[in-house]
Amino acid sequence: VDGLKARASYGIPPRPNPDGSPQKFDILRPQRIAAPVTVYVEQFSAHPLEVDAAELYAPPDGWLDATGTFHATSTSPTDKPVFKVTLDPTDGLYPLPYMARQADGSAWEEECAFPFAPKEKARQGFLPDGSRSFEEIDRLHFGGDGQGNQISALAEVDFFRIIPPSGYTKGLPASLRTDTPLPGEEGDIPPEERGRNFFPYKPPHIEASPPRSMLARLTNTVQELLSSGKYDGAIWTQGSPRIEESIYWMNLLLDVTVPVCGNAAQRMHGMIGNDGPHNLLDSVKYIHSECWKDENGRNRAGMVLCQEQRVFAAREVMKGDARPGGYLATGGHGGILGASGQEAGDPLLLHLPATKHTWKSDVRITQLPSQVMGVRKAAAGIESIPVAIKDADGKLLGSAIPKVRIAKDGSYGADDWDDDPEREVDLIALVEDNLEHAPLAGFIIEGLSPYGRVQSRARRMIILRGLYSGMPVVCCGRGNTEGFASGGGGFIGGSNLTSTKARLLLMACLMKFGALPVAADPDHPTEAEKAATLAAVAAYQKVFESH
Predict the structure, then answer these.
(1) Is the pLDDT of residue 407 over 70?
(2) 9-54 pLDDT, tens digit each
(3) Which residues contact 410 (CB under 8 A, 6 or more apart)?
(4) What is the pLDDT of residue 413?
(5) Residue range 174-195, pLDDT digits in tens
(6) Which of 33, 69, 136, 493 has CB atoms 3.0–4.6 Å from 486's, for a disulfide?
(7) Given phi > 0 = left and psi -120 to 50 = alpha, else beta, which region is 452?
(8) Can you tell me the distance from the alpha carbon of 346 to that of 254, in angstroms, rounded to the nearest whole number?
(9) Strand order in the sheet with 304-307
(10) How far is CA 127 from the centre of its chain?
(11) Could you give the C-alpha distances from 538 to 286, 472, 491, 510, 531, in angstroms and in order?
C-alpha cells in the first residue's frame, strides 16, 4: 500500500487504524534513488544507548543549526551533531517511503485496483526471479554477527526463471533482464501470460497453478543446469503449499550428484517475522558446507527442504501449518536429517536417507525408456498404445506426464447394506476419463490408516475395474500416517508415504513401466489375468519399497 507521505502529497486522507485513528508511520519499501543526494544523519540515532557510551565514539562530521545549515563546528548549544553522507544510485536499495498511486490518483491498498478486480486491473506482488530477493537480503538484512552481505560472502548465484510466480505481460528487453537466460531462451523476454508462462497463487481469485506438463520443464531444465558441472548446488523457491511436491519429484527424477534445496516462506516478503530470507541463507550455507558429500563427492542426502534451520528429507516433509515451523516430518520415523543456520556451528547431517534418490534412483530421467505402452478405450474394448516418454535428445516430454488421481475414502460411506457399484459415479467417471484421455494413469487410495484399504465394497469394485483396465492403484493411510500400507490383491502398498508423495512416485513409475496388463472384462478378470497383473505390480512395489 502507499504511505503517509504519498497520501499527504496528493490530498488522499490518511489510512485509518482499526479504531479510526490515522496511521502513524510510513511503511518503507526497498527502492532505488534516481540521483545522488546528500543527507545528514543524526548522531547517536541508531540505538537509544549509543549516547550512553558517547566517549567511545569519534566526533560527528559537523552540526546543523536551527535553520538546517551545516557547520563544521558547533555554533550553538542547540546545534544537532550529524554525519554527512552522499547517497548514490549505485549504492543499491534504500528503505524509502512508497509514493506510487493508481492511475486514477487513488491509493493502492492491495494488488488489485479494487477488491476482486480482474487480472487486467491487478498488479503483481511476486518477484519475476530471485535476484531482487537476494539483493535485499545482502543489502538490508544482517546475521547473528551483525554483518551484512551474508549470501554474497559465501556464493556466486545465477537466477533462472523455470516456473516463475510472476511474469512480464508486456515482455522485457534483454538489456533489462536480471535473470540468467536458460539455454535457447536468450535475448528479449516475449510477452508472458498468467497461467501459461507464470503462476501466481495470490490474489486467490486470479491464481494460476502449473499443469502436470510443467514437471517436464522442471526436470529437463534443472537436469541440464546441474549436469553442466558449473554449479555446486541449487535452490528451488516456490510457494509453501507446493514446494514439498516439487522437491520430491526432483529427488526421484534428477540424475545429478549435487543437491537442490527447497525453500519457501510461511510469511510474506516484508512481513513481521518473515522467515524467507533466513531459509534462503540456510540453504546457501548448506550447499557451501559440503556436508552432503559422500567420500566420492556425490550427494548422499538427496534433495532436501531447508526450513526454520532444519534440513528435511524430500520424501518425508510436508506442510502442516501456515506459520514458521509449520513443516512436519511425515511417516513417524524420522525425516529431519540435520540442521543449517543454527546459532552455533556449521550445517551438519545426523541422519541419511536409506531410500534411493537422484543419481541412485530407479526412476531418474536417464533410466526412463523412450517409450512405454499405455492403454486407451477402443471400439472393441481397451487397447494398448505406445506412449512416448522422451524425445530424441533424452528430454522428458510434457505429454508423457501421467495422470494420477487421489481418492480419499472414509468410514460410513456405503449407501446401504447392499450398495450398488454403479452409483459410485465419481470413480466411474474418473476411470472412463482416464481411458479416453490419459493412456498412462493410476489411482492413489487414501483409506484406512495405516492400511489404505477401501472400506466400501462398491467403491472397491470400481477401483478394481480401474486396476484391471491397466491403471495401477496405490494404497496409503490417512494424512500423515505413522504406519505402513502393504497393499496386496493387486494393489501397491504405499508404505508410509503421504498420498501426495505416493502420487508423484506412481507417476514416475508409470513412465518407467507403462500401464498394467488389461483384462478382457475388467469387472471379471480371469485367474491368468489376475496373475499377470500381480507380476506387473511387483515391479512397482519394489520401487515403492525403496524410494
Answers:
(1) yes
(2) 898 888 888 898 988 888 899 999 999 999 999 999 999 999 999 9
(3) 455
(4) 78
(5) 999 999 999 889 999 999 999 9
(6) 493
(7) left
(8) 27
(9) 234-237, 260-263, 304-307, 310-313, 336-339, 348-349
(10) 14
(11) 38, 11, 10, 13, 11
Model confidence pTM above 0.90: yes
The whole-angstrom separation of Cα 356 and Cα 67 is: 72
Interval 509-517 mean pLDDT: 98
The conformation of residue 444, written as its DSSP 8-state character, comes to: E
pLDDT at 1: 63
Taking the CA atoms of 275, 276, 280 and 283 in sequence, report the sign of the dihedral they define: positive
The reported pLDDT for the residue numbered 453 is 83
Place of cell 540521483: 35
How many degrees, rounded to 5, is the angle at CA 326 between CA 128 and CA 239? 15
Please name the residues in contact with 281: beta carbons below 8 A apart, sequence gap of 6 or more: 137, 143, 150, 151, 341
Give the up-direction half-sphere exposure of residue 91: CA atoms within 13 A in the CB hemisphere: 17
Backbone dihedral angles phi then psi of residue 154, each to the nearest 5 degrees: -110, -30
- Burial (CB < 10 A; 0-12, 13-18, 19+), residue 417, is exposed
Q: How far is CA 306 from CA 269, 377, 383, in A?
A: 17, 45, 46
CA dist 485 → 289, 432, 444, 502 (Å): 37, 27, 12, 11
First and final C-alpha spacing in the chain: 46
The amino acid present at 98, given as its one-letter code, is Y
> Which residue has 526463471 as its cell numbers?
161
Question: What phi-psi label fits residue 258: left (phi over 0), alpha (psi between -120 and 50 degrees) or beta?
Answer: beta
Single-letter residue type at 96 = L
